[in-house]
Amino acid sequence: MQTVRWRTSSYSTANSNCVEVAVAERVGVRDTKNREAGQLTVSREAWQGVLGALQAKH
Fold first, then answer.
1. How far apart are the first and last CA of the chain?
2. Alpha carbons 2 and 10: distance in angstroms, whole number
3. Which element (helix H / strand E) includes 48?
4. Which residue pairs from 19-25 have beta carbons closer than 8 angstroms and sit at least 24 positions apart in sequence?
């Protein structure tokens, strides 16, 4: 089993609604405030699509 490193945005604060992301063979996304709730896991390609869509909006 591969150990992953979860990362939180540097813009995250104690009272903000943020997610953590772990990039490995697949990409994991979880709620920073409720880590025990589980995670969403997607392919790297799908994650790149999410990032591209977010960048297009800004």
1. 37
2. 25
3. helix 44-57
4. 23/47
Which residues in 1-58 belong to E strands, given as ranges?
7-8, 19-23, 27-31, 40-42
Cα–Cα distance measured from residue 32 to residue 2, given in angstroms and rounded to the nearest whole number: 21
* Closest alpha carbon to 33 in 50, 45, 16: 16
4-47: pLDDT as tens digits: 899 998 877 777 788 899 999 999 999 988 999 999 999 999 99
Question: Residue 34 and residue 43: Cα distance in Å, rounded?
Answer: 22
By the 8 A CB rule, do 41 and 27 touch? yes
